[in-house]
Amino acid sequence: MRRAVSDSSRPEQLLHGEPHPGNLPSTPTGLLFIDFETCCRGPIEFDLAHAPDEVADFYPGTDHHLLRDCRPSCSR
Question: Minimal CA–CA distance to 50: which of 8, 17, 14?
Fold first, then answer.
């Protein structure tokens, strides 16, 4: 996975690393990310790989080959 990400040339951004609903509680001022132990920088496909498949549909321009490479091997 490391090679796929580094060879992808995709833009990097701040990633949560494990963006499941339990790490995104709703507050009176909006959604709040918690559990920052897994934060990192990288392509959005890394975070999308840990979300349900349908979430990628909301991100135009997703590299679906990289997304597949970033998914945990047990879910391929």
Answer: 17
Beta bridge partners of 27: 30
Burial (CB count within 10 angstroms: exposed 0-12, middle 13-18, buried 19+), residue 48: buried
Assign 66 a pLDDT band (cuts: 50, 70, 90): very high
d(CA 56, CA 42): 16
Name the DSSP class of 11: P
Model's pTM, two decimal places? 0.68
CA atoms within 13 A on the CB side of 19: 18
